[in-house]
Structures are given as C-alpha cells and as structure tokens.
Amino acid sequence: MLAALSLNPLAAQPRLSPMPRPKKTISERRTKRVEVRLTEAEEKALATLASDGGLSISDLIRKVALGSRPMARKASPERAAFIRGLAELGKVGSNVNQIAKVMNSDLAAHQRVSVSGDLIMATLYAIQTLSKNLIKHLTDGHSG
Question: Given CA atoms 7, 12, 17, 21 in this order, what sign does their dihedral have?
C-alpha cells in the first residue's frame, strides 16, 4: 500500500499557465529617460547596492531620489534560500501526512503498523515549528 505514495515532490504540483501582466494606464507608463554620467567605480557601487536590495538600478535610483516605493524584482539570496527551504518543508510535511494517512487506514483494517504514531506526530510538530520560524524570519521586516 505504501508503493502508491509519490515521494517525488514535483509530481503533486499542478502546472500553472502564465497570466499576462495587466496593462498600465497612460499615467502609470514610464516614458521619460534621464541620463547620468558615472565613473566605473560609481556604476559598480550602484549595481551592487541595487543587487543587494533585490532591485534594478532604475528602481533603486527612483527609490532614493523620489522616495517612492519600488517593487523588488527578486528576493535577496538569503531570503530566496529561506523561501526554498519553506517550500521543501511543505513538501516533506505533505509526504509525512500521506504516510500517516496510509498508516491510519492500515490501523483501521487491523494491519500491523511499523512506525509509531508518536514518531510521526513529533516529526510533523518539528516541521511545523521550523516552518513557523522560517515564516517569522521572512515576515519580520525583511522585504525583498
């Protein structure tokens, strides 16, 4: 009965079709350009600042010069790692839940169960605790 479980985390994920980006109104479109001359060192420093903040150079300049709130295009490497870790924990938790479901059905059918329910519950609790800590780290003022 355990052979029916899919341990491949990618097998259970539905395929999503990409949605087109909504059209911007004329007033929201950025059509004006500004040219700035920089030394190579200044350009490198600007690119590093933007990259560290998960922003494009244009978004960084807009944020600093105008005080506007730019949209971060990508997560910082640390935040991206936390997000991937949280996703992996979700997949592991799902697999543990599937195993528990099979084991519970075996118990209901009066078949022998080889893994204790306490071990499964402790594992699920550990996964839940780690997930909550990752979510807390991601939401405590860490944007980008």
Answer: negative
Q: Measured between alpha carbons, how far is 25 from 42 in angstroms, rounded to an integer? A: 34
Alpha carbons 79 and 134: distance in angstroms, whole number:
10
Separation CA 95–CA 4 (nearest Å):
12
- pLDDT tens-digit profile of 62-101? 888 888 665 666 777 777 788 888 888 888 888 888 887 8
Side-chain half-sphere of 121: how many Cα atoms within 13 Å? 4
pLDDT tens for 14-68 read 445 567 878 888 888 888 888 989 999 999 999 988 888 788 888 888 888 888 6
C-alpha–C-alpha distance, residues 81 and 48, integer Å: 19
8 Å CB contact between 104 and 120: no
CB atoms within 10 A of CB 49: 14
Residues near 6 by Cβ (< 8 Å), separated by ≥ 6?
12
pTM of the model: 0.37
Cα–Cα distance measured from residue 128 to residue 122, given in angstroms and rounded to the nearest whole number: 10
